Recover the amino acids of this structure.
């Protein structure tokens, strides 16, 4: 899969509507994607093991999307084979009263991955330039009035860019994924949640309310992706009307990122190797 078709690094001309939500590029079928995904999961397991053993890099995977786009499914199916000791998932929900006492990046900061770990954010600090902006929630964040200026969103884009540059410079590698679905596909999935009793628990009235802001969300996502895409922290916009393609694409992105780190198992010194031989001899000579 040519990830360059999905990757946004620094493109002021990026238009979300130019990316077809049902596109699968050169992947021809669900069956083909399933086989490739299974192979990719095996590769990810091996790479994660090296990441964990080496203990030099941390991986931060961020999922952003409209409701029903498949964030939970991607996390469940793509990351299914990873070692739970080296993988964590954190979901960004409505801010608590404690959250609102702090700066908006604080929650992300306390949940960053340790070196050798993969941390997955289901939604993220990007909600601060999406939901907060659309629903005019700045007034709830206890920010001094004089700091809420007309250019506050541009300032937040700069702050996020600086934050992600800081992460990269400290060996924390951001992988930012936007699952891109059509309004018609969202409608189909919402109806499926209503019609299928096993999926009723997933349905929320809030999904219908948020759907009314579809065009505004598309506008803000487009601006956000364009202004926060960089070489070190690119965005990947994945056509997600077909879940099987989206999941395969996510796995390809993770593998590609890990491969570039040239991960290796730690090598032992001559003294350590000699000690291993002594330990081996001791075990073999046990009665």
């Amino acid at each position: 899969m040519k990830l360059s078709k999905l990757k946004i690094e620094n493109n002021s001309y990026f238009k979300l509507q130019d990316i077809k939500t049902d596109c699968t590029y050169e992947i021809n079928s669900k069956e083909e994607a399933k086989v490739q995904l299974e192979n990719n999961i095996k590769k990810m397991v091996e790479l994660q093991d090296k990441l964990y053993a080496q203990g030099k890099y941390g991986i931060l995977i961020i999922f952003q999307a409209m409701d029903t786009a498949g964030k939970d499914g991607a996390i469940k199916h793509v990351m299914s084979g990873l070692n739970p000791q080296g993988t964590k998932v954190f979901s960004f929900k409505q801010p608590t009263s404690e959250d609102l006492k702090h700066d908006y990046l604080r929650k992300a900061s306390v949940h960053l991955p340790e070196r050798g770990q993969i941390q997955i954010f289901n939604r993220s600090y990007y909600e601060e330039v999406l939901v907060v902006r659309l629903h005019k929630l700045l007034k709830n964040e206890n920010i001094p009035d004089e700091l809420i200026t007309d250019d506050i969103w541009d300032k937040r884009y700069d702050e996020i860019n600086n934050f992600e540059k800081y992460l990269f410079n400290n060996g924390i590698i951001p992988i930012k994924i936007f699952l891109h679905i059509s309004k018609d596909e969202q409608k189909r999935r919402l109806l499926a949640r209503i019609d299928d009793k096993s999926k009723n628990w997933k349905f929320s009235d809030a999904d219908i309310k948020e759907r009314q802001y579809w065009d505004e969300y598309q506008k803000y996502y487009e601006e956000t992706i364009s202004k926060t895409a960089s070489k070190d922290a690119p965005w990947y916009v994945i056509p997600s009307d077909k879940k099987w393609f989206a999941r395969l694409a996510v796995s390809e992105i993770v593998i590609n990122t890990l491969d570039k780190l040239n991960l290796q198992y730690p090598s032992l010194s001559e003294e350590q190797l000699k000690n291993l031989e002594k330990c081996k001899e001791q075990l073999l000579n046990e009665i």
The first strand starts at residue 7 and ends at 8. The beta strands are 7-8, 58-65, 87-91, 118-122, 172-180, 235-239. The radius of gyration is 22 Å.
